[in-house]
Amino acid sequence: MSATITAPAYRVIPIIPTLKPGSMEGPGPFVANEKIQEGLGFPGKLVDDWHDQAIAKMGELLGKYRSLKVFMDTCVHCGACSDKCHYFIGTQDPKNMPVARQDLMRSVYRRYFTLPGKLFPKLVGARDLTREVLDEWHNYYHQCSECRRCSVFCPYGIDTAEVTMAGREILDSVGYGQKYDNEIIGKVHKIGNNLGLPGPALKDTLEGLEEDVKEATGIDVKFPVDVKGAEVLLITPSADFFAEPHIDSLIGYGKVFHATGTSWTLSSMSSEAANFGMFIGNYEQLRKVALRIRQAALELGVKRIVVGECGHAWRVAYSFWNTLTGVGDGADQDDKFAMMLQKQLDHRYKQPSHICEFTWDLIERGALSFDKEANDKHIITFHDSCNVARGSRMGDYPGGQFDIPRNIIKTVANHFVEMDPGTTHERTFCCGGGGGLLTDDLMDLRVKGALPRMEVLQQVVDQHGVNFLAVICAICKTQFSKVMPYYGFDRNMVGGVHQLVSNAIKLGAK
Ligand code: SF4
Ligand code: SF4
Q1: In the chain, % of residues over pLDDT 70
Q2: N or C: the chain end with fewer CB closer than 10 Å?
């Protein structure tokens, strides 16, 4: 054997899952009851003429959303998306291939909305909308986290998430909604957050947190609520108020505000960044949830709105708040409350801002100091959350949403490694619990859907000793904490980027 010849490094061989047809067939998630459905203005239970109403709704959506019609017409079944979905990889059920998920609706579309489908249904793969098909929709449109990974690989840019949203919207319109999502939306309308945590309980919780932080640091870090005239309104996922590890990031935000003397407040009326209206594809619900934030901002007279660590909430804020509420460019000139808010907000700052943008801006301006060694016990990797990676930006330049959280981590900690590049940035895998699927009745799906992320995490654990998985999404935090033990990981490995900030920030240094 020649000493000058070396074998090339082994490649990571793509593994194409074997098929297990029917492995995830079933009733799907719990169906919303009458009270939950009617609370959102949907029929309480499956209506008698569900067939005609569902087809009419599909026609309405096809007319309203041109993208949906394009997605129905343009797929060439090339298969490029088929092995890109974490739920297909984890479950091996062929109906969880993105193309198959679309075809659940496309086959019905062809039957009722195309001439060949009306004349020769079998020839073109067109199907009647039967009760069996409707049940399939309920099941498999709740096995998609709307993560949009598949669309990154589709040569036509077909977005399966939008097909899923349309499917869920049709199901709601005929009284066949999902319990978890719709119950949560109802709680936000009634109380102001996903948890149903009333204002006085929130204030008590935050007072308790102030005491805990004082005990740990000796410093009076405040977590103010309903402070009129504060500069910043923080809209954060309600899980930050009490769940682990979420609360550690809330402490981090509080410390950043404290260290810079920023006057800030939470709102007891609008104490939720999450917006499950997007998950069910319903514009009216999406808007109604978002409008609570506008109301809070107007009542409190704040100058800036900052959004905490929550993936889909940031997508809604970044992409939709402008037209929904008037926060950001492109507000509706005829909406007088949107115009009032536009006038009130300070446009020297980006509206809205992500908490990572807020913190990174301060770091760049030298306004924060850190003791990086405080995080030395952590060897950190970063999981890009889907809705941040593929549905938004930070810093207003392409890729800012990838750089800024990483820049913060590298500023506050010494040990950072990346996971396999095929699974990060815009190619990131979903945690397995997004898109309104973070419910115990879907635990089997959630555990299986986490497989691709867990496999890659295992690689960096083995190669680099990674012991901290940093994320900027409340759903990722909950999902990983719950499913990691199934894969032999310690659930405490997961934490927020501002948890790391909190560990290292020097309070009172500047
Ligand atoms: S879960 Fe993500 S990858 Fe899978 S079909 Fe839905 S949008 Fe596509
Ligand atoms: S990659 Fe696009 S065109 Fe190809 S099968 Fe998937 S959705 Fe259809």
Answers
A1: 97
A2: N
| 239/255 Cα distance (integer angstroms) | 18
To test the ligand 2 pocket, which listed residue (70, 75, 104, 105) has its Cβ within 8 A of the most ligand atoms?
75
**Are 330 and 304 found together in one domain?**
yes
For ligand 1, atom 8, name the residue with the nearest CA. Answer: 150
318 lines ligand 1 (CB under 6 A): no
Q: How far is CA 251 from CA 6, 194, 204, 496, in A?
A: 52, 20, 16, 11
Q: What is the DSSP string of 77-98?
A: ---TTTT--HHHHHH--GGGSH
**Distances 134 to 69, 220, 336, 370 between C-alpha atoms, Å:** 20, 56, 42, 55
CA dist., res. 290 & res. 202, Å (int): 20
Does the Cβ of 177 fall within 6 Å of ligand 1? no
Whether residue 164 is found in the same domain as residue 199: no
Number of domains in the chain: 3
For residue range 434-464, what is the model confidence (pLDDT) as tens digits? 999 999 999 999 999 999 999 999 999 999 9
Please indicate, yes or no, if residue 366 is contained in any of the structural domains: no
- Spatial neighbors of 450 by CB under 8 A, at least 6 apart, are 86, 90, 431, 432, 433, 479, 480, 483, 484, 486, 487
What predicted TM-score, i.e. pTM, was given to this entire model? Answer: 0.94
CA Rg value for the chain: 23
3-state helix, strand, coil in the chain (%, to 5): 55, 5, 40
Two structure tokens written together for 20: 């297990």
Look at residue 9 and tell me if it is in a domain: no
Tell me the pLDDT band of 4, cut-offs 50, 70 and 90: confident
Q: Cα–Cα distance between 446 and 437 in angstroms, integer?
A: 8
Helix (H) or strand (E) holding 354: strand 353-354
Nearest alpha carbon to residue 99 among 119, 84, 79: 79
* Whether residue 84 has its Cβ less than 6 Å from ligand 1: yes
Average pLDDT over residues 166-189: 97
Supply the range of the domain harboring residue 448. 371-504
Q: What residues line ligand 2, using a CB cutoff of 6 Å?
A: 75-81, 98-99, 154, 156, 158
- Cα end-to-end span (Å), the chain: 63
**Is 501:359 a contact under the CB 8 Å cutoff?**
yes
Pick the atom of ligand 2 nearest to 82's CA: 6
Q: Do 95 and 200 fall within a single domain?
A: no
Atom of ligand 2 nearest to the CA of 77: 5
Q: Is residue 185 part of a domain?
A: no
Can you tell me the distance from the alpha carbon of 457 to that of 463, in angstroms, rounded to the nearest whole number?
Answer: 10
Residue nearest to atom 5 of ligand 1 (CA): 98
Q: Rounded to 10 degrees, what is the CA torsion of 476, 271, 350, 503?
A: -50
Q: Note whether 169 and 66 are same-domain residues.
A: yes
At CA 302, angle to CA 509 and CA 323, rounded to 5? 120
Among residues 487, 408, 495, the alpha carbon closest in space to that of 453 is found at 487
* 167 and 23 inside one domain: yes
